[in-house]
Each structure stands twice: as structure tokens, then as C-alpha cells.
Amino acid sequence: MVNTVILSYITFVYFVSFFFYLLMMVIGKSTLGRIATYVTLGGFVVHAFAIILRWIESYDLGIGHAPLSNLYESLIFFAWTIILLYLLIEWRTKNKSIGAIATLLAFGAMAYGSYSPTISSRIQPLVPALQSNWLLAHVITSFFGYAAFALAFGLSLMYLIKRLDNPEKQNMFLNLIPRLSILDDLTYQMVVIGFLLLALGIITGAVWAHSAWGSYWTWDPKETWSLITWLVYAALLHARMMRGWRGKRLAIFSIAGFLCVMFTYFGVNYLPGLHSYAQS
Amino acid sequence: MIKSPLDCFFPQIKLQFQKNSAIKKQNFEVLWGLTLYLIQVAFFRCEESGDTGCKWDLFFSLGDMAASKTTNNSNLIWNFFCSVNLTIFLLIILAITSIVGTVIPQQDSAVEFAQRLNPGFFRLFSFLQLFDMYHSIWFRILIGLLALNLIVCSIDRFPAIWKLFKTSPRPDRSKPFENIPPDWSFSVKGNIKDTSTPLHELLDGQFKKIKSKETDKGLYFYGEKGRYSYFGFYLVHLSILFIILGGILGSFFGFEAYVNIPEGDYVNSVRLRAGGAPVKLGFEIRCEKFFVEFYKDGTPKEYRSDITILADGKEALKGNLTVNNPITFRGITFYQSSYGTIPGNKARIGISRQGPNPSDVSITMELRKPVPLPGNDGNIHLADFRPDFMRLGPAVLLVVRPPEGEEKKLWIFRDHDSIRERFPEIFEKFPGLNPAAFEPYFFSLDQMESKNYTGLQVNKDPGVSFIWIGCFMMIVGFFIAFFQSHRGIFVRAQPTKKGIRISVAGRSNKNPVGLERELDKLSQKLRNLFMT
Ligand code: HEM
Questions:
Q1: Structural domain count of chain A
Q2: Which of B64, B70, B84, B88 is best to mutate for the A interface (most A CBs within 10 A)?
Q3: Which of A87, A121, A155 marks a domain boundary?
């Protein structure tokens, strides 16, 4: 299928932009950063095009549905949301320092989807339980939430790296990273956005489960892990808002939160349960 | 006979509880000590990060929201429950303990796991109720503590928030105008008296609670918006209480049940998943027809039941039930959940007679309707239908009544030939299975009629509306809490030698960057108003 071929090329486009972002940080030339942005933007547009193409192809097969229904499609969409949010941040803050991490994460998701032998990229028909607009809303909100947490994770890593900075050394690479307080603030804002979207994702998922199976919450491992993730970030927000936690402690908190996100996404497949992606 | 393995499994746990009450007390003390320790740990001081006070805006940004603490309450327990450290602690503990239930199989699937466990662990796990931990006492206590924490905090904070909500500043203050950027101030010609009406009109359109005051220093205006944003977090916290309440209502007054209805049949009661006596619905539900549709590759595409609900002797509701489109009647909801086939009450039986005058017929027989045998050798009838008898496939129980002598009961299998291949001697060994046991006849089951049935999940959950209201409140609350702020705007018109100097200033409880933008816009508007 054409879309999977295009998507497997996009994987390398993101690797190229990762390379340029990295080069920009090491060498410190702004031209490199500009190239990186254009490459990413180009990849992003073609990426969107390929997703739409896949949607159309599913209709040509007579089993039309939005391309958000199995692990492959979710990984492709996850990478796309990361890049979209990252480009928004770059545009709003005019700073490219987390570009390397964002494109690396997108590259990882795309490569895992396209090249892992255990993941099928075929367009599969939707079984009755998955034919629901609530499910669509659930997947979209959840993955935008995951993407926001991914960027918060990138920012937190940057924070920890920046802390190594030593005013005397004047390390070029570290100089390009924004000030600590800015990283801290951005992390916090990404966490808030992710938290809101994750809540929406859990709610739409509950509505869907309620219409498909009759109960909005069954403590299945995937549900439980998304709740765990939500609780961890809720604790993070209270720690920041009420106790004034900042800096290193918050960065570590946000990294722990992102590990929970990753476990919700992948780790749960190794636990007993019935969530849909576990089977494909 | 034991209905479900759980029936024999959970009483054991209860028993364990009674026996180990001594251990319980000890455990409780340990837990309490640990709790106190963790709370201490949670009392970290804030970390100083070099340069504070930066304003870096992405989509929005937040200032410090912590309102002033009310510390005059000296009640220890009250203070314990209105601490945000307790909140953080409980959130983290809930997160950590929730992991346990995703690793240890729960409820039905726990049985197999529990059998493989060694007795010591089994006792420990069942004592801690780990085989159904999300419904265990300690997990519920944790959630209860969280709810209590929320309620106490809300009450404790309310007076302070209410004061914030109620008070509004005098309009003629000059402090807000200190250190304003030059953009927010400009001079125009004219008389100060003429500025009053246009200023009033402009502010009226955008702000609430407009106040003005004229002093000898000039003309002062105050306006504001977003006062209600103080209650955003109340809405979020209230929503969590709603959700917890919805869960409690559901578990006390709701049920989860199922029922299988053959096509053309009706039922008026359903079986609880938890076991026990069937629950009367108070009305009848009939399955008219059941359909399955498949994709080309064999994946199921749609399950559909056409159902009719009969209440008080009348047809009350008619509809199609599909997955994701349940039907609700009198607070009870029906979900399409499974399907299957059951034998009907007709079968085609082949009767062949060997020997002197052989015959070979195939007749359709109905349940319990006797049919004479061809050679006046008595009659036969069918007494039972099984879709899968002894795991050897469909079978019927054929009863042969000869004119004299005892009747014979024979199970006749549809897959006679393949069974013989797998178990060569089986029919000879067991006369009750031998289709040739009544000589000189040989019986065969040519076809068995089957009927579809639809499997429905039947739930009642009076708490579910609370859940949805709670979810809605939470999202609205989020938006108010994070994206709205209380902004107060000050406008001042001062007489100068050349004319009038107009300045704007403002303050906000959060999102300073948003406030700046708002004031930029306002000063631009004022310029347009007075400079043209
Ligand atoms: C998960 C359940 C939650 C619990 C149990 C909880 C509990 C609490 C408690 C007890 C406080 C008061 C602390 C104090 O006054 O010292 C508090 C404050 C606060 N919570 Fe939550 N909260 C929860 C969820 C949330 C969520 C989802 C948000 C985010 C929108 C949030 C935002 C806040 C804020 C902003 C405050 C400070 C309010 C103020 O200044 O009075 N909480 N929370």
C-alpha cells in the first residue's frame, strides 16, 4: 500500500531533522536550525497527507474507517501529534532546543511502527465494538495528551542537562538551551495541557466503554494505568501549585509521569487484559 | 455442586479475616507508622531556582495561585485533613497501590493464579484482599480519605476564597500605575469632563462591575472580568466528589446481569453476574430476530438483535440493539454482548432396517412426538437435544418403545463416522451410544435444527448520571481554572498642562502575560477613541 511506503520514508525524514537539530546545537549555526525546521515541516505535511491517503485507501477496500484503529495506526498518529505540538511550541517560543528530542521521539514511534516485525501495517476491518465516534474522540484526545507529556518529558530532560551548565565553561551546546526558569515554566504548561487532554481521553473512553459493554470503568489494566498516570500528574500539579515545587524535583516528577505514559501505551500489552490494541 | 469457583473462594478470605484479627491490629500500626513517615517526607521545602519571576508564555501562563492559608484553626485532625501534603501523598499512594491490581489477576481470573500460589502467599494475598483489590476495604478507605481531604479543604478554604470573590478595590488608586510601560499611557488634548462618557461606554462593553470616581487628581475607572475563576478549582474538586458518589451509588443500587434470549422467545428475568437468584425485570423483553454480518475476510462486522419490550401487557418499545447502541427501558439498559446457537426442537432422523425386507427412510421428528417404526416394531420419539454431547458434537436422545419389552434410550450422534474413526470401539462398548443397538435397525442423525440466541448484558446503574455530570464539571472546571483569570483594570484620566493624560493599568491573579496583552489592546482602543 502506498501510504505505508510513504510513512516508512517519513521515518527517515524525521531522523534527518533530528540530525540537523543536533548539529545546530553542537555547532551553533542558526542556518542548520532553519534547515531542521523546514525538513520537519515538510515531513509533517507529507505525514498528514499519508494519513489521509490511508483513510481513503480503507474506503477503497470497502472497510472504511479513520486510521486510528490498531497499534500501527496509533504509533503513526502519535508521531504526528508530537511533531504538531512541537512545531507549535517552536513557533510560539522561537526556540528550537527541544527539536532534537521531539524529532527523536517521533522517529522512534515511526520506526517502531514501520519496521517492527510484530506490528502489522495492514488496514484491518473494524469489529463491532470499535465502531464508535466516542472511540475516535478517545484516541485523538489521548494521543494529543501523550504528545504533550512527551514534550514535557523532553523539556525536563533539557532542564536536567542544562543544570550541568557551568558559567565558566561557556559550553556552546548548553548555552543554546533556554534559561532554567523558562524550561520549568514550559514543562509545567505542557503538563497542564497533557493533563487536561488525558482527562478528556479517559472520559471519552469511559463513555465509549459504557455504550459498548455497559460499564464505564472495569479496572482493566490499560484503564488502571491511565488512571495511575493521571494521578501522578495530579500530584505533580498540586505539588507545584500548592507547595511551590520547582526545578529539578518537578523535572524528575515529569519524567516519572512520562514513564507511566509509556507503560500505559506499551507495557500494558504484557499484562492480562482486554484492551483492543493488545491483540493487534 | 459449586456454581462458580469464586463461591468457595471468597468465604475463605472472609474466614481468614476473622482468624487474623490480631495480625490485623499489628498491620494497622505498621501502616499507620509508614503513613506518618511518608507525610513527613512530603513536607519538603520549595527548591529555589536561580532566576524567578520570568514571564514566559506558550499558550498561557500561570502565576502563583496558592491563596492565603487560614492557620487559625487549631484542631489537629482538621489540619491533618486540610493539608495538600495529604492530597499529594494519597494521590501517589493510590497510584502505587493501583499497580498491584494490574499485575495480580483480579476476580474471576484470580482463581487460576491463586491455585498456583503457595499457601503462605495465598493467605497473605487473601488477607490483603489482593484478588479483588479495587473493591477491598483498604482501597475504599484510601478513596474515602481522598474525598474527606477534598471536602475538608473546600470548607476550610471557602471563607478566604469568598473574601477574594467579594472584595473589590477602590477605583482611585495610584499604586497600580507605578511602573507601567510607556505604551499604556498617552496624552490628548481636550477637557477632562468630555472623557467620562466615552470611557464609560468603552469599558461597559468589555468589563463588569465598572466603578468610577472623580477626585481633584483626575478621573478614575475600575472594571474587571473573570471573578468567577476563583471557583474553577471548586468545580474540579466537586466533580471528583460527584464521580466518587456516582461510583458508590452504582455499586449499592445497581446490578450487572446477563440473559440469553432465543429468537422468537421472551424473558422477564435476568441472571446476576455475581450469582444468586434471577432478578425480575418487571417487564418482558422479546428477541424477534438476531443477525450477524461479516466482512469478506470473516471478521464480524455487526451483531444486531431486533427486540420488543412488553410492559403491562402492551408493546412498549421496539428497536434494534447493536454493539455501541444499547437500549434503556425503565432505568435498565440492554447491551448486545454475545450470541450463539441452541438446538431447536426438530431433527431429521435416518432409519434404516437391515435384513429380510430392508428399508431406508429419513423423517423429520419433533421433540416428544412419537413416530411408528416402519415394520410395526413399536415407535420412537426424541427426548433430548444437545448441541455438544460429551464433547463429541450434536446428538439427540432417541427413545425406542418396542411393542413388548423394555424401552431403549440411545444417544445418536450427527458425526457418527468421524467419532468411530477417533474411537474405534466406542459404540460397541457403550450400548447407550450404539445406533445399531435396536436390531435390526440403524439410526442416524442427519440434521438437527438450531436456533440463534442473542446474549445481552443487562445493567442498572443509577450512579451513571452523576458520573457524566462530574466529568462535564471537571472539564468546564479545568477551563475556568487554567484558562480564565480574575483581571482588574484601572483607567485614569489626569488633567495636565497641555490637556489630558490617559493611562491604563491592571492586575491579575494569574496569567500575567495575558493581562499584558489585554492592556496593550485596551490602550490601543483608547488611543483610537481619543486621537481621531
Ligand atoms: C484527583 C483528585 C484531587 C484531589 C483529591 C484534590 C485535592 C485537593 C486538595 C485537598 C486541595 C486543597 C489543599 C489546601 O487547601 O491546602 C487542593 C487544592 C488544589 N487543587 Fe486539587 N485535588 C484533586 C484534583 C485536582 C485537579 C484535577 C486539579 C486541576 C485542575 C486540582 C487543582 C487544585 C488547585 C489549583 C488547588 C489550589 C486551590 C486553592 O488555591 O485553594 N486539583 N486539591
A1: 2
A2: B88
A3: A121
- Same domain assignment for residues A24 and A105: yes
Chain A's closest residue to B89, CA to CA, is A235
- Ligand 1 site, residue B480, Cβ cutoff 6 A: no
**Does residue A172 sit within a domain?**
yes
Indicate if A108 and A212 belong to the same structural domain: no
- The reply to whether A116 and A160 lie within a common domain is no
Tell which A residues from 1 to 60 touch B, by Cβ distance under 8 Å. Answer: none
Scanning A209-228 for CB atoms below 8 A from B yields: 210-217, 219, 221, 224-225, 227-228
Nearest-Cα residue of chain A relative to residue B322? A128
Strands B487-495 and B500-508: antiparallel
Atom of ligand 1 minimally distant from the CA of B156:
15
A122, A198 contact by CB (below 8 A): no
Alpha-carbon dihedral of residues A9, A10, A15, A21, nearest 10 degrees?
140
Do A193 and A225 sit in the same domain of this protein? yes
Q: Are residues A158 and A236 in the same domain?
A: yes
Residues A194, A219, single domain; the answer is yes
Residue of B52, B64, B95 lying closest to A228 (CB–CB): B95
Give yes or no: residues A4 and A51 share one domain.
yes
Nearest atom in ligand 1 to B152's CA: 10
Whether A279 maps to a domain, the answer reads no
Which ligand 1 atom minimizes the distance to the CA of B474? 27
- Mutate which of B236, B482, B510, B511 for ligand 1 pocket (most atoms within 8 A of beta carbon): B236
DSSP states along chain A: -HHHHHHHHHHHHHHHHHHHHHHHHHH--HHHHHHHHHHHHHHHHHHHHHHHHHHHHHHHTT----S-SSHHHHHHHHHHHHHHHHHHHHHHH---TTHHHHHHHHHHHHHHHHH-TT---S--PPPGGG--HHHHHHHHHHHHHHHHHHHHHHHHHHHHHHTT--TTT--HHHHTSPPHHHHHHHHHHHHHHHHHHHHHHHHHHHHHHHHHHS-S----HHHHHHHHHHHHHHHHHHHHHHH---HHHHHHHHHHHHHHHHHHHTGGGGSS---GGGG-
pLDDT tens by residue, chain B, 532 residues = 333 333 333 333 333 333 344 344 445 555 555 555 554 444 433 333 333 333 344 444 444 344 334 444 567 788 888 888 888 899 999 999 998 888 888 777 777 777 777 888 888 888 888 888 888 889 999 999 999 999 998 898 888 888 888 888 888 888 888 888 888 888 888 888 888 888 888 888 888 888 888 888 888 989 998 888 888 889 999 999 999 999 999 988 988 888 999 888 888 889 888 777 888 888 999 988 888 888 888 788 888 889 999 988 888 888 888 888 899 898 899 999 888 887 777 888 988 888 777 888 888 888 888 888 877 778 888 888 887 788 888 888 999 888 888 888 889 998 888 888 888 888 888 888 888 888 788 898 888 887 888 889 999 999 999 999 999 999 999 999 888 888 989 998 888 888 888 899 988 888 788 888 889 999 898 888 887 6
User: Does residue A129 lie within any of the structural domains?
Assistant: no
Distance from residue B153's CA to the centre of ligand 1 (Å): 9
Please report the number of interchain residue pairs, chain A to chain B, with beta-carbon separation below 8 angstroms: 167
- What is the value of pTM for the model shown? 0.79
Cα of A184 to nearest chain B Cα, Å: 9
A243: chain B residues, CB-CB within 8 Å:
44, 46, 84-85, 88
List the domain range (segments joined by +) for residue A101: 1-121
User: If you measure from the C-alpha of residue B83 to the centroid of ligand 1, how many angstroms do you get, rounded to a whole number?
Assistant: 10
Q: Which of these three, A121, A156, A190, is where a domain ends?
A: A121
Task: Please check whether residue A84 touches B, CB under 8 A.
Answer: no
Give chain B positions within 8 Å (CB) of A208. 324
On whether residue A208 sits in a domain, the answer given is yes
